[in-house]
Amino acid sequence: MDHAMVMREKLSAFVVTYNRASLLETCLRALSFVDELIVVDKSSTDNSAAVAARYADRVEVVPWSPTVEETRAFALSLCRYGWVLFLDDDEILSSETGPYLRNNLAGWDADILAIPLRHYILGMHDERAYYWPEEHHRLFRKGAVEFIPTVHGGVALQSDRVASIPAESGVCIHHLSYQDVASWIERTNRYTSRPDRIQVAGETGNLIRFAHDQIDYWMQRTTDPSCDDYPAAVALLRAVYDMVDRLKAWEAERGLDGAALFRIIQRNLVPATDGREPDAEIRDHDGRGHRQPRGLRTRQVEARQNLPGGEAAEMADLRHSLNDEKHEEMQATLVQLRATEAQLRERSEAARKTTLSLTSTRDELDETIAALAVTHNDLDEARATIDETRAMLDQTQAALDRTLATLDQTQATLDQTRAYLTKVDLEAERLSGSARLFIRQYLPKLRRHLSRRRA
How confident is the model at residue 19 (pLDDT cuts 50, 70, 90)? Predict the structure, then answer.
């Protein structure tokens, strides 16, 4: 059965590539199940375009740009079908993805699907690392997603009908991103140099605290406590990105221009003139040039000063030179003023935060004092209650003492009664014995006597 009939709705896919011929073929082969495959090549200098032509239904070559975000919106405009799947050229779908999408795409009550993504950094994927589990919105109905040109801005969701493909399904994107530390650093520098980028949030005004916080943050997302294993290494790489991003923001906030400052340093280190001039290039009437010794140039300048108009030309050159130096000095001063302004702004912000903190602390102290006053009153009441309770306890103790004395008297009476009862028991036992003896001795006689009288 044709897979388009099973899916009911046709699926377009696009890939943006640049100089990734070695990965692109695997990426495109894993997309063989889609109904339309489009590749946008950013003027690759390897054979990426030729590789794309073997697998794609359409290949478009566009000018190079440093990041992929600028190109995705254009690639989307080329897609013809209602569902769209997009990948980068270093992303490869798992073998389970094609059959899964063919069998399930029509059954989802959603406009956007999030697909699990497995990063491979330094050549490997480790589920203990900070980047797992992770999922990206890569499959959507047209109109449900808008691409944002901001670096790492992701996509703007235009629908709240979103579903996630479970990781246990085996469906995922294998992201073969950074093969070594050098490639991570190169891309970090490239991405953080883009003015339109998502900048990392965190504590401002304390660069060192920020660096420690980022390392701690990414380490806390790992499930490996070791500080010298792969998860720690990639967590540190991720923190390095954040630190570079923050330092470039710090640099921009101060308006620092290192090139202008270096020119000032050069001018201050070397005197403007030491009486010697570099060899000048002389242009003949035929346009050919040759170097002229310094002494000869000096003599010609002196001769030119003696010619009519030579002094005016020399003064114009001098004014031009002075204007250039003044312009550079003004630029350097502007740079320094901008840096000073940024520092003052930062100090003002820190002072404002300190003032807010002190105000908050003062309010907390006032609340604490009020609470202490209430507590003091409560303690006074508790102390009075304790005194009353102590008096009651003293009274109770006296009553107990009297009761004990009564109990002692009662115990003595009981002892006397017990002794008397013991005597009574002994007397009763004696009388009982006497009665039994009397009955044994005199009862037979009494019976004989009574018998004689009846006779």
Answer: very high
Residue range 3-192, CATH number? 3.90.550.10
Work out the percent of the chain whose per-residue pLDDT is above 70. Answer: 79
pLDDT in tens, 177-226: 889 999 889 988 887 887 778 777 766 778 889 889 888 989 999 988 88
For the chain, the structural domain boundaries read: 3-192, 207-253
For the entire predicted model, the pTM comes to 0.58
- Give residue-wise pLDDT tens across range 226-241: 888 999 999 999 999 8
- Helix H, strand E, coil C: the string for the chain is CCHHHHHCCCEEEEEEECCCHHHHHHHHHCCCCCCEEEEEECCCCCCHHHHHHHHCCEEEECCCCCCCHHHHHHHHHCCCCCEEEEEECCEEECCCHHHHHHHHHHHCCCCEEEEEEEEEECCECCCCCCCCCCEEEEEEECCCEEECCCECCCEEECCCCEEECCHHHCCCEEEEEECCHHHHHHHHHHHHCCCCECCCCCCCCCHHHHHHHHHHHHHHCCCCCCCCCHHHHHHHHHHHHHHHHHHHHHHHHCCCCHHHHHHHHHHHHCCCCCCCCCCEEEECCCCCEEEECHHHHHHHHHHHHHCCCHHHHHHHHHHHHHHHHHHHHHHHHHHHHHHHHHHHHHHHHHHHHHHHHHHHHHHHHHHHHHHHHHHHHHHHHHHHHHHHHHHHHHHHHHHHHHHHHHHHHHHHHHHHHHHHHHHHHHHHHHHHHHHHHHHHHHHHHHHHHHHHHHC
More confidently predicted of 17 and 284: 17
